[in-house]
């Protein structure tokens, strides 16, 4: 990585540059910079000789009509109130390097813009609200920001101008550096989505309440329960790329055996970065007994022939919608007898769960259907004493099933998380909802209550299911699920 001239904020750089002539104060730069300063001649040279790169005639982003409808629904819910939705800021990884930025889901949902420091503000108006998107404009070439600031254009790339942003997002755009002053002067009721932008929250500290802000966040979470046409299309894109990522992994399992789970992680990540924005969450590449650790993301263990690989991974699209798919694969291509017995039980439970997903059904129905099958299996295998109703009532099956059977899916892998319980877990399924169905059985390596042959085997099968008008559609049907089909699929890919 090249050595930046200045670790300070852009404002500090620009102030120093402007005052240098009058106060003979050097530009602040990193302690061990190789350049002691900027000569007047160099500063003047950097101001000119640049071609005009303004973009004209830009088309709106594909989801612009959908984001406008979402803002209209938000406006109708909170009439007469100022609504503030930040994208968030860069987060430091170490010293002067940052994590890759990911906009808040609320901001992305309402604008389609994905850049740091952005803020959507809905100002009350006679006919509802007037929306403005506050963004960082292009780096200033006159004052040197574009090459002196660590976040300047020559360091991190070109930003859209405010006029370009207006064309893309269909929202009037203003300079975000002027926003905090405006917010401090604001009057009337205000709500803000908290947790993303400390500067915005500080400017509103005496104008907001935790209760009002929580209501705003709950509304935006519940609004995402039912996906529109654009969203379901993006989820299908995410799943399709994920299917190809799983195929990539199967093709290189022999190389993973020679290295570690990290080879699997890196292989899937390549597909995610080539076809999407990123992975939607930390990939779980759990071989052998690691499959019994629900969120095994260390991915540093051995990959051994004869054991299982539990791969739980999802590609995130460029619009931030993510897939979430799991398959449990025999590393050598063939399940052993005990592996197949456990796998087929989980498959049967998933089949029951998927069959329960339909409009008008209770959200809990697919979970209950899957858990009943798994409870029946562990009673049949003599792992716990029946009857099955007793096992379910006491939750005894949870020693080996551990987690719930699914969750909503969308911009977050666990989407709509702040929705009210009565609209989510205790709610009713509607067309357009997208959820995972992912039962599992996990027999820990040190579990003395089960026969030794079970120990260290973990199986989960997960698919992304869209509720339709007449039932459901398995978005991830491109990946086989039945044990014999999995073996045939792996053989064809390796062959």
TrEMBL record:
SUPFAM superfamilies of this UniProt entry?
Creatinase/aminopeptidase (SSF55920), Creatinase/prolidase N-terminal domain (SSF53092)
Keyword Phosphoprotein: yes or no?
no
Question: Could you tell me which residues belong to the region Disordered?
Answer: 1-39
GO CC entries: cytosol
Broad enzyme group: hydrolase
The cofactor named in the record is: Mn(2+)
Q: Enumerate the GO terms in the molecular function aspect.
A: manganese ion binding; metalloaminopeptidase activity
Where in this chain does the record put each Aminopeptidase P N-terminal domain?
A: 61-201
Which reaction(s) does its UniProt entry say it catalyses?
Release of any N-terminal amino acid, including proline, that is linked to proline, even from a dipeptide or tripeptide
Give the matching PROSITE patterns.
PROLINE_PEPTIDASE
Under CDD domains, the record lists: Prolidase (cd01087)
Protein EC = 3.4.11.9
Please cite one Gene Ontology biological process associated with this protein. proteolysis
According to the UniProt entry, which residue ranges have a biased composition of type Acidic residues?
Answer: 13-22
Domain of life, per UniProt, equals: Bacteria
Q: Which family does it belong to?
A: Belongs to the peptidase M24B family.
Could you identify this protein by its name?
Answer: Xaa-Pro aminopeptidase
Q: Which organism is it from?
A: Streptomyces aurantiacus
